[in-house]
Amino acid sequence: NAGVMQNPRHLVRRRGQEARLRCSPMKGHSHVYWYRQLPEEGLKFMVYLQKENIIDESGMPKERFSAEFPKEGPSILRIQQVVRGDSAAYFCASSRADQIVEQYFGPGTRLTVT
Amino acid sequence: AQSVAQPEDQVNVAEGNPLTVKCTYSVSGNPYLFWYVQYPNRGLQFLLKYITGDNLVKGSYGFEAEFNKSQTSFHLKKPSALVSDSALYFCAVRDRFKTIFGAGTRLFVKA
């Protein structure tokens, strides 16, 4: 059973470009969570999604950031018009609907904005 | 709101000596506590968790943690440190669907 997959693992964008980060949850998992880790800091919750629904986005910046988890395909975290401060590692986790305590983390995507 | 604190930014220990990485928590209700390890430029690896049951929890790579309700602590321990244990360690607590992470403690094990 493959774990949580994230791609790309490394992403370099110039200021003003868009970044798209993808997360494929573990098989049988319908809940996805995104976290951001700024350099030398712990992870911070961004958003919690179920299929086709955003459940909680209290940790998402108000502008430029959006997330979706369509009925088919991976969850996408989208950052428009990236700035240097967006440089971070973005981690995705997934869980089953009946076991949200058990969250499994992916390897992360390291975004570098130049 | 749930929170965890890791009072030490860095812990240094000699190889073969016991190690402790400290964590205290503040929760309402029963805590769901976790330890994760992160190696340089890598993802998070799950070490162990406390949900309920025995206060001493055994995890991966020889690590264990002791849940202490009266002291609201969940310290990570290992009887004999290895150089390869050098990494960044995060204590975490589950707040409904969110995982709340501590700031992390960097462990250096010297040969």
Describe what this molecule looks like in 3D.
The complex is a heterodimer of chains A (114) and B (111). Chain A is 0% helix and 54% strand. Chain A is mostly beta strands. In chain A, strands 2, 4, 5, 6, 9, 10 and 11 form a seven-stranded mixed beta sheet that branches. Chain A has a four-stranded antiparallel beta sheet with strand order 1-3-8-7, with no helix packed on it. With 111 residues, chain B is an all-beta fold. Classes of the chains: A mainly beta (114), B mainly beta (111). The A-B interface holds A 31, 33, 35, 41-45, 48, 55-56, 59, 91, 93, 100-101, 103-108, 110 and B 32, 36, 41-44, 46, 51, 90, 94, 96-104.
Comma- or semicolon-separated keywords:
heterodimer; A: 114 residues; mainly beta; 7-stranded mixed beta sheet; 11 strands; B: 111 residues; 4-stranded antiparallel beta sheet; 0% helix
Main β-sheet of chain B, in a few words?
6 strands, mixed
Largest sheet of chain A: 7 strands, mixed
Our measurement of the CA-to-CA distance between the termini of chain A, rounded to an integer number of angstroms, reads 36 Å
Radius of gyration of chain B: 13 Å
* Number of strand segments of chain A: 11
Q: Strand percentage of chain B, roughly?
A: over 45%
Overall pLDDT metric of chain B: 93
Structural class of chain A: mainly beta
Return residue spans of chain B where pLDDT drops below 50 for at least 5 consecutive residues: none
